Amino acid sequence: MAKVKNWHLQREMDYPYEGARPKKQWAIIFDLNKCIACQTCTLACKTTWTSGKGQEYMLWNNVETKPYGSYPLAWDLNVLEKLGRQDWAKNGKYLGKTIFEAAEPTEKAVHFAPQDNDWMYPNVGEDDCAGGPAGEGGFSMSSLPHDKWFFYLPRTCAHCTYPACLAACPRKAIYKREEDGIVLIDQSRCKGYGECVRACPYKKSMYNPHTRTSEKCVGCYPAVEQGIQPQCVVNCIGKIRVMGFINPPWSMREDNPVDYLVHKKGIALPYYPQLGLEPNIYYIPPIHADRAYLRQMFGPLVDGAIERYQKLQSDPQTAGLLTLIGSTDRIMHRFKVADSTATGFDDKGQEIVSVPVTEPVIERRAWDEQLSVVRNNTP
Amino acid sequence: MQKHTLSLGPLAIALLIPNAVFAGDIVAKSIAADLSKADPTASYWANVAGEQVSLMAQPMVAPRPKTTMTPFVTVQAVHDGHWLAFRLRWKDTEKSEAGKLGETSDALAIQFPINESETPPPIFMGTKGNPVHIFHWRAQYQRDAERGKPTMRDLYPNMMIDMYPMEYSDYGNMKKPGDEQREKFSPGRAEGNPQAYEKSGVDEIYAEGFSTSSVQEGGGSHARGVWQNGEWTLVITRELKREGGSVCPVGRKTFAAFAVWQGGSSEVGSRKSVTMQWSTVQIEATKEAKR
User: Fold this and answer.
1) Residue A126 phi/psi, 5° resolution?
2) A15, CA 20 to 30 Å: which among A47, A192, B235, B241?
3) A170 near A108, Cβ under 8 Å?
4) pTM
5) What domain range is A353 assigned to?
6) CATH number at residue A125
7) Interface pTM, i.e. ipTM
8) In total, how many domains does chain A have?
9) What is the pLDDT of residues A247-270, one digit of tens each?
10) Rounded CA gap, A9 and A6, in Å?
């Protein structure tokens, strides 16, 4: 195995192939404080990509309720249990083993192999709360008051820097594109062995029983090639997500929206970084969920990320960027906030969108005399 | 690192086995019968000696099995001057035809060198410039041949689906779309991947090393397997000579290697039992040459 640099772990790690970072790396940031699990992203993806035979069960994008939801069933519990202890140093360095490092010599990665029953409950655990009623321990799901917390976790393929699917494919039918880091399964070469389905710890490779090949999220590459963000992003009605290109911390650019939120502000974190794939979907963690749960999911940097997020009210730069998110279907390569206005630019430096950092408040009379109708002021 | 030492172990063993060491002789007996169709229950098999060939869990590349699921396969061979038939028997406690998510199929492959030489290529699927010709049978492919490729409804009878794109009960004013348009919604088929289409039972494959195999069209080979009492009996019949592929010259010898997958134990792809040495196959001289 080769030694590669994984900045999520702040150390080198073993990987079956030499490290080779793409020229640009596709990435999505999700603000979990805003997701309402409306599943519009799920449907946008479904209708675009997986309406064919053998894809009936496939949700390349799904939204699950944490802690009890999961698709396929218990994907997270299964792989975490198999991986064993996962200790972090306080400074964010990972002290445990990754799925590549913990694998037996006969395997490429620690994994669990989902069976078809595991794919039959896409929204299991929806809206189930955890943590016991306020002020008490225990578990109450069906009675009032509700338990303390839950949150929604939208998931796509993370187009990992070190994909386990790619590492495990004995056909070498999976590749990572140099131009944008998108990971694809070559549909002309795949033989449907399902090794990628087994190896991906996030379970984002899926077997198509009709074509007998495995398929996965394609990052909406035809859109990305034209400077357009993926379907799940542009259809998000909560404007909780943005797709862009992330740089590793040593070459980060402060005016790059993704770099800014991940590196400069440190408010967006990868999920289950300890698995060792350097996944490229990043989450702004929910402020109200159980911290112990969030630490096992996002690592030791989660407390600081939440603290900084809660101070954003007095940070017009970040507030401006968060306002830009969801205001354009184009990929923003740069952004600028000045004079109470946030502006996004494309890869050629052309302005693509401009929004006020704070929407002006307009109050109207309840009765519109011109049209003889009642108007509501909706804040 | 301990892991490196462990994973290099089998490699070291494999390198120590020179290609010139062979697992034993299989004699393809010349008989007067039509071998163009695979028939595992034909009477002529009773008069042909079986050679027991040892297999072990594929040791070279991960992912690989921890234990050998198929320790040996019994091989018989006959030819009629044009067709060369192998009858293969191995123990497998359950019949696995795969189809649904997470299922894998029982399978067997025979491999021949393509270049005619006294020394066969590396046994692990050949090497660049020294390719192999593989006949890959799967119970799943045989099911296709016997009962048609299963539809999603066959696999999941209780499945709910509103409709598939371009497949409507009433097309109204719309022109009924052709297969090509419909198959755009099945990426493997849109790309023409042979894996995505109905199989005849056995695939012919050329390879020049691991992960290089490519399915060849137009092979005339046939296969038929019967699973009974915890044992597969399979016949694969091939033409002695395939243009561009392997040639098994009558009156001379060639080489063969074998691999077996037990679908019930999740064996698929590189998770398989394989022969670690080539067997020689002596093609008995024909008295009444048909070629």
Assistant:
1) -55, 130
2) A192
3) no
4) 0.92
5) 329-379
6) 3.30.70.20
7) 0.90
8) 2
9) 999 999 999 999 999 999 999 999
10) 6
